[in-house]
Amino acid sequence: MSPALRLGATGFALIAVCYGFARFAFGMFLPQIDGDLGLGPELGGVISGASFAAYCAAILASAALTERLGPRAVATAAALVAACDMAGIALAPSPALLAAAVIVAGSSTGLASPPMAAAVAAAVRAPHRDATNTTINAGTSAGVALSGPIALAMAGHWRMAFAAFAVVAGMVAVATALALPASRGGGPARGLPALSAGIRRLIAASFLMGAASTALWSFGGDLGARHFGWGPTGTAMLWSAIGAAGLAGAGAGRLVTRFGLDRIHRAFLVLMATGILAVGSGGAPPAMALAGGALFGAAYVMLTGVYLIWGLRALPDRPATGLMIGFLTIAIGQTMGAPLFGVLLGAFGAGAAVPAFAALALLAGLVPARGRALAAA
Question: Is the pTM of this model over 0.85?
Answer without folding.
Answer: no
